[in-house]
Amino acid sequence: MKVKYNIDIFSASRLMVNKRRVPIAMADSATMKRPDVKLVLLGDMNVGKTSLLHRYIARKFTETVSTVGGAFFLKQWGPYNISIWDTAGREQFHGLGSMYCRGAAAIILTYDVTSWQSLVELEERFLSLTDTANEDCIYAIVGNKADLTDPKALEAGSEEGAEPSERRPSVRKQVQREDAMALYGRVLKYKLQDERSSQPAESMCFETSAKTGYNVDLLFETLFDMVLPSILKKRAENNSHTVDLEDRRDAKRTRSGCCS
Question: For residue range 179-224, what is the model confidence (pLDDT) as tens digits?
Fold first, then answer.
C-alpha cells in the first residue's frame, strides 16, 4: 500500500492565509519560482523548528502543532530564491528527512537549550539524514528557546515588537554553547570536512528564541550570505549547459550556403 505524505506550501506575501495541503507527488512546481538553493531544518519534535521559520517569515511568534511530513517555503533573497524546508521531528516521519536533505546547501540542526536529549538526538538520529546533502553543505547548530534561560534573549522581545514579558528566566539550561560547538566539530568530522577550511564553530553555533525573535534574523541571513557562492556556481553551470538555438540555426544556414 502506497502512502502519500503531505507538504505545506507557503506564500511569501501571506504566510498563513495562502497555506494549502497537497500531496508531494502533485506539488505544482510550475506555479512557483524555481529555487536556486535549498536550506533544511532538522531536529527532534518540539524544539521549535516551525516556530523559528514563522518568526523569520511572518515576524511573529506562532503556537504551532507538530509538522506532518514537511513544510516548504520559498524566500526571495535579493535576486535569488531560497527554498526552506521545515521537517517533521516525529519518529514515524524520520525516513523522509534524507529526501528533504537531498541537494541541500545548508542544514540547520536544531535543539532545545533546556533539553540535553534534543542535542543527543541530532547526532544519533538526524546527522545520518544529511548524507544526501551537497558535499560542500554548510551546517549550523542552533539552540532554540533561549528566552527560557537567557535574560538577553527574553529582553529581545521588546526590541522585536513582541509582547512584553514580566517573568524572568527560571528554567535550567541543559546545553551550553560549548556543547554545541563540540557537536559542530563532530559533524565536520562525520562529513569529512576539514576544520581548517570550514567555517569556525564560533560563527556556526547560534542560540535563538522564536518567541522573542532573539538571533533569528541573524541565523537565517548569515546562512543566506554563506550559500551565495553555491547559488552562483549553480547558475554558472546551468548557463554553460545552455544552447542558443538561434546561433545553431545561423551556423547551419552558413554551412549550407558554403556548400551550395
Answer: 999 999 999 999 999 988 899 999 999 999 999 999 999 999 999 9
Quote the CA–CA distance of 31 and 205 in Å, as a whole number: 36
Cα–Cα distance for residue pair 119/44, rounded to 1 Å: 9
From the number of C-beta atoms within 10 Å of its C-beta (0-12, 13-18, 19+), residue 98 rates as middle
Report yes or no: 109 and 141 within 8 Å, Cβ to Cβ: yes
Beta strands in the chain (DSSP E): 6-10, 20-23, 37-43, 70-77, 80-87, 106-112, 138-144, 205-207
Burial class (CB in 10 A: 0-12, 13-18, 19+), 102: middle
Q: Which amino acid is present at 190?
A: Y
Contact predicate 126/42, CB 8 Å? yes
Q: Can you give the pTM of this predicted structure?
A: 0.77
- φ, ψ of residue 102 to 5 degrees: the values are -60, 125
Residue 70: predicted pLDDT: 67
Q: What is the dihedral of CA 38, 180, 165, 152, to 10 degrees?
A: -110
Question: Could you tell me if 117 and 46 are in contact, meaning their C-beta atoms sit under 8 angstroms apart?
Answer: no
> CA-based angle 22:11:53, to the nearest 5?
95
Rounded to whole angstroms, the Cα distance separating 242 from 239 reads 5
